[in-house]
Amino acid sequence: MRIINIIPGVKVYKEENFSILFGCPPEIIKYFILRKIPFPDYVVIPDTLHYRGVLQNATEFVLYYHLFVLQNFFKGKKLNILGEPRHANNNRELLRLSLLGPTRAEYEALDPDGSNPYYEDLYRESRALSLKDKSGNELSIDSFVNFFSFKDGALETEHFKLTHSDKNIYEINGNTIDVNFSQEQIPPYDLKPDFVPQTPSKFGIDVLGGASGFSPGNPCSGLILNFNSEYMLVDCPPYLEYSLTARGISRNQIKSIFLSHIHDDHCNLFPLVLFHERVKFLCSREIFWMACKKLSLMTMHATEEFYSYFDFVELEPYRENEFYGIGITPHYTVHSIPTIGATFTMNCDGHNRSIVFVGDNKSLVEIKKMVKAGNVKKEKYENLYRLYHDRFDFFVVDGGMGILHGDPKDSLESKSDRVIFLHLEKLPDEFNTTFTTATHGKRFIIKEGTDEGYLIKSLHILNHHYPGISEEWQNTLLNNITLIKYNAGDVIIKQGDMSSAKTYIILSGNTHIIYHDGKESRQIASNKAGDLIGEMAIVYNLNERSASIVAVTPVTLGLLDEKVLYSFLVAENRIESIKEMLETRKILERNFRNFGLSVIVNQQLAWKGKRIRFKKDHVVIEQGKLGRNFYLILSGKFSVIRDGEEIAQLAVRDIFGELGSLGDQARNATIKTLEEGEALWFDKDDIIQIIKSTPSLHFFVNKMIKERGGKFLAISGNNSF
User: Fold this and answer.
1) For residue 347, is pLDDT > 90?
2) Chain centroid, CA 443 distance in Å
3) Strands of the 521-528 sheet, one edge to the other
4) Scanning 307, 573, 590, 595, which has the fewest C-beta atoms within 10 Å of its C-beta?
C-alpha cells in the first residue's frame, strides 16, 4: 500500500490490485500522464465540491480517458465512482448529459410548442453517434460506470470497505485519507506568461489554449475574440484565471462568452459565476440550458439559479445576429452532443473581415457517410462543406481526428488566408508548411487596436467610482489622462516613497499591494482592471506611499494628475463622503474576505450601506414581521431566536435579513444583540441592485441561504427561461 499526493486536495491510494483517486478537479488526467501514474480504478467525489473557483468533481475526462484512450470498456472494465448519495446521483446525470446529450423529454421541455426546427435533428445525430452494444442498442451511462453511494458513512466494493469518517476524510484498511486543503490548485502545464502589455486589437484572436483534454503539456481549447477593444471568451478552458493572467488580461476585462458546447475541455464555466460583473452569454437555447444544468449538477445548486448569474443572448442559427458592432452567424456541427460554431464578421476600414470558429466537428468524410445513412441532413453537410471551402480571413477548425473530431485534410481546399487548428498539440508532418496550430500565447490579428480605446475606458471607470460626474469635469479629467505601461514584475509604486502627484487607473491586467513591516513583506490586497491606485493619498493628503504596488501581469495604467483629481473632488463636494466610504470599504476588505469580492464591489457596498451601532439586548429583527433591511455584521455577537429558543449565533462575517429583504418573506427568526455591535445596513432596493449586478455576491448569498435550509433567490431571473 502507498498514498500518492498529486496536488492539494487530490490523493491516490494504491494497493497491488486496485487504486483509488480521492478528489477530481479538471485536468487531473494530465497529472497522471505526466507523472506516469497508473489510471485509477475508483474515483471518490469529495465533500468540498468547489474551492477558489475550481470544481472538485470533474469526472468527465476521467471517463473519456477510460473509454476512448485506454479502451477499458471494450476490455470488460467499468469506471467506478464513489460518493455521498446525492453526489453520486448528480455525477451520473452529469456524465449522461455530457456523453449522450439531452433526452427527447429534455428537448421537449425546452421547446414545448415544437417550433424549433433543429432539435429533432440534434437528437437523431446524438443517437447515431452514441456507443452501442453488439445488437446495435444504445448503451446507458450505467453500462460504462458503476456508481457507489455511502450509507451511514460506509460503502463496500469487491476490493475494499471505505468509511467516510468526517468532511473529506476517509478510512480504508487502517489508513486515513485526508483531502482537506487550503492551497491553490494549479494547472499541470506551463502557460508561458507574457511580460509585455498588449493592446486589444480592433479585430483578432488571443489564444488561451488549443490542445485536447488528453494533451498533458498544453491547455485545452479556448480563445479570446478581440473586437472594438473588448474581449469575448470563445469557450472557457479549465483554470481560466491562470490562462487570463498569463496573457496579461484581468477577469474584469471579460464581458461576454460564446460557448460552443458543454464538454469539459471547452466548458469550465464556474469561474464566471464568481465574476464581479455579469457576463453576456451567447449561444443557442439548448446549450445555455445544458451549461446551467451542468453547473447545477456539479455544485448542488438549482439550475434556475444559474440563469440569474448571466445575461443570456440567444443566437439564432444560420442568420447573422448583431452584437455591438460585430455580426455572429452560428451554425451547428456534427458532434456527440449539441455543438455550435460561428462566423464572426466586422467592418474594418470599409471592408468586411471574417473569422470562422468551426467548433468540434467530425470529418467531412464521416459526415457524408452519416448523410447517406439518413442521420444527418444534406443541407447541414453542404453548409459545413462551404465553410471549409470558402474564403475567410481566419479559419479556426477542429483538427483532433479520431471518432468525434475533424481531419486536417478537410481544410486542404480552404481559400481562407490562414487555417488555424484546435485540438492538436502538433500538426502531422505533411501539414507543417500548410497550416498552423492555436498554441497558447499566440495572437492572430486582422486589424490592430489603438490606445484610444483605453482613454474611453478610463472615463467609464471614473464614472463607476464617482457616479454623476458633470460633463465639464468629464472633459477635464479625460484630457488630463496619459497612458503608461508596465511589464509583469515591475514596481509601480514603492512603499516609503513620496507621493508622485499621480493617481493610477488600472486599464488592463492585475497588481498586488505589498506591505513590508520592517521584517518581511506580505501581500495585503490585489487590484485588477477597473480599480484606482493612489486615491487614498489624495483624500487624506498623504505625502508618503504606505505600501508598494507591483505588476503581477503586464499592465496598462491611466495616469491622472492628483491636483486635477483633488480639484474635481473638492468642486463636487465629494471628499468627506469618499473618506467615509474608504473607511467602510477597509472594514469590508478586512472582515469579509470570504466573499472574495473585488475592490469595486466592496466600494459599491460601502457607498450604499449605512453603518449602525447597536446596544446589548437590542432586537434588530422580529420574527413574523415584514422587513426590507439586509445586514452585514461588522462587530459584536447576535443571537438567532426562533419561537423563543436560540438556534444559532452570528458574528463578524455573517449576514442576516436576506430572506425578508431579498425574498419578500416574513422574518423567520428574531435577531437580538448579545453585546454591543455594529452592522452595515442596506435598504432592499439598494442591496438587490448590487447583488443583481454581482454574480459572485449573489452566489455567496445563495450558498448561505442554502446552508440555512432556504430556497435560492434568482434576483434577476432570465426572461427566456
Assistant:
1) yes
2) 22
3) 491-493, 548-551, 510-516, 521-528
4) 573
